[in-house]
């Protein structure tokens, strides 16, 4: 039972991350442990699940519509799509989180709330390094973007992607996803002009080596980004973990910003939720 809800959990001893022996039971324990900081970033947002029920080496697939067998007490909502409205899951509380975690999935969310899909409340930059560039170079680009956003009165926060890169997030208001996407592209183009040997605003593959792709396109209304604190379907149980700007400034090697499930509870104890300001009323900036 989880907060009065009967919740069948399965295959708790199954190893999902063979490189470390991390089991499904440990995945569920992780999510229960970080629920207090994770749930506010999921609440009132339609969730896309990137499922990996047999681990990251098995079949990996997106589930966007409400999965078959979803309990009737799990909140769902109709959301707009180009091909027509569809119904998606909202993870609003601990029982819903544990039910979703039992599916073995990454959590991905839009940059808007289900009650106001026409207005974006987040801007996101996904900084993706092309080898031999790494998260170290992402941090350099992130610091430039932080200052550029601040010049427009928008305060940015950082988290690791849980893979190779870094995500920048900021709270915004009063603009559509289309407008936010346009503004994000403008800044990505500016970043490339300011740091031509480091930043790139186009995904063109032959331009990628040694540079950081500033992916502005995830601000499109249809796109989703890995939610803060989600586990990733990687060889090891890495997490999309919020980081301090001091950590970004001091990152001299990729390992400095490589966080696993077991690292997160101590970080939350030390820092609280570093992304909590995104959720505070009145914290959102307006696009120029």
UniProtKB/TrEMBL annotation:
InterPro entries: LigD_pol_dom, MtLigD_Pol-like, NHEJ_LigD
Pfam families: LigD_Prim-Pol (PF21686)
Keywords: Ligase
Residue span, DNA ligase D polymerase domain: 23-274
Gene3D superfamilies linked to this entry: DNA primase, PRIM domain
Highest taxon of source: Bacteria
Single annotated GO MF: ligase activity
Name of the protein: Non-homologous end-joining DNA ligase
Organism: Streptomyces coeruleofuscus
């Amino acid at each position: 039972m989880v907060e009065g809800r009967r919740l069948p959990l399965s295959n708790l001893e199954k190893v999902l991350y063979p490189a470390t022996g991390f089991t499904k039971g440990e995945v569920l324990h992780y999510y229960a442990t970080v629920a207090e900081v994770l749930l506010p970033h999921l609440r009132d947002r339609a969730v896309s699940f990137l499922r990996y029920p047999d681990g990251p080496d098995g079949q990996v697939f997106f589930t966007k519509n409400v999965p078959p067998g979803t309990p009737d007490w799990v909140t769902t909502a109709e959301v707009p799509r180009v091909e027509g409205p569809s119904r998606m899951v909202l993870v609003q509380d601990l029982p819903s989180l544990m039910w979703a975690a039992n599916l073995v999935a990454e959590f991905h969310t839009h940059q808007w709330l289900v009650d106001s899909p026409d207005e974006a409340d987040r801007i996101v930059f996904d900084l993706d390094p092309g080898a031999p560039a790494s998260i170290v170079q992402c941090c350099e680009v992130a610091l430039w973007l932080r200052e550029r956003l601040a010049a427009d009165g928008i305060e940015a926060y950082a988290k690791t992607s849980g893979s190779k890169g870094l995500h920048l997030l900021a709270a915004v208001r009063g603009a559509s996803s289309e407008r936010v996407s346009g503004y994000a592209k403008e800044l990505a183009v500016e970043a490339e002009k300011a740091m031509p040997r480091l930043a790139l605003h186009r995904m063109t593959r032959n331009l990628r080596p040694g540079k950081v792709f500033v992916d502005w396109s995830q601000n499109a209304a249809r796109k989703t980004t890995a939610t803060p604190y989600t586990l990733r379907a990687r060889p090891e149980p890495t997490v999309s973990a919020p980081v301090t700007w001091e950590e970004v400034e001091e990152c001299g090697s990729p390992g400095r910003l490589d966080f696993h499930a077991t690292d997160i509870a101590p970080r939350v104890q030390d820092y609280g939720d570093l992304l909590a300001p995104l959720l505070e009323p009145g914290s959102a900036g307006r696009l120029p």
